[in-house]
Specification:
With 208 residues, the chain is mostly helical. The protein has one domain. It contains 8 helices and no strands. 19% of the residues are buried.
Length: 208
């Protein structure tokens, strides 16, 4: 079922999220005077390569997680608690890594001169404004996945209870499907968390 588009424009919605301190900080960052580039170290591919390496490590941790590959015997049963803990563990790792990278890239922007530093200041304000909302929304995902888990499990129980059913599904096929769903959601969240990092990298590439 499709989700109807919001009737509010992005600027209107954003204005509701900004308190007066954030509004002043954002206005100050946007009104900053552009200046010449600083004499800091020129941006090269080192930072981009490090970001790519850390992102790949997070993705590999997700795709190789024994709970999600079926290699861990402790999650063969119908207990969602293990999956919830695993999801939250991956979330914390993504949040910590992305946060450190974002701060480091903003520091690099400051070194590139006033114009780039202004972009960094805007990003800092936007992170302060949006991160609590992002955190709240992403924190709901384990609960939603729990509902998905229960639906799949109940469907399997209903199938097994149907004596007239002639097809025999593979053992734990529903659980394998859930594992794939959970991996896909985690990888999608990884993409979301790294979008600001990709934007900062793009800003650094054009700063000189």
């Amino acid at each position: 079922m499709g989700v109807p588009p919001s009737r509010q424009s992005l600027p209107d919605r954003l204005s509701q999220w900004l308190d007066w301190t954030h509004a002043i900080a954002l206005s100050t960052a946007l009104d900053g005077k552009a200046g010449a580039a600083a004499d800091g170290p020129a941006f090269d591919d080192t930072e981009a390569a490090e970001c790519a390496r850390l992102r790949a490590a997070l993705a590999d941790a997700i795709t190789s997680d024994p709970a999600l590959t079926g290699a861990e015997s402790s999650v063969q049963g119908a207990d969602y608690a293990v999956f919830r803990r695993r999801y939250q563990t991956h979330q914390r790792a993504m949040q910590a890594t992305a946060g450190k990278l974002r701060g480091r890239l903003r520091d690099r922007l400051v070194q590139q001169g006033d114009t780039a530093a202004r972009l960094g200041a805007v990003d800092a304000v936007m992170e302060a404004v949006l991160s609590p909302r992002e955190h709240g929304l992403l924190a709901r995902i384990p609960t939603l996945l729990g509902e998905r888990f229960e639906r799949l499990h109940q469907a399997e129980l209903n199938h097994l209870a149907d004596a007239s059913s002639s097809d025999q599904a593979a053992p734990n096929a529903w659980l394998d499907l859930f594992r794939r769903d959970m991996q896909s959601v985690l990888l999608a969240e990884l993409d979301v968390r790294f979008q600001p990092i990709e934007a900062l990298l793009a800003a650094l590439r054009t700063a000189h």
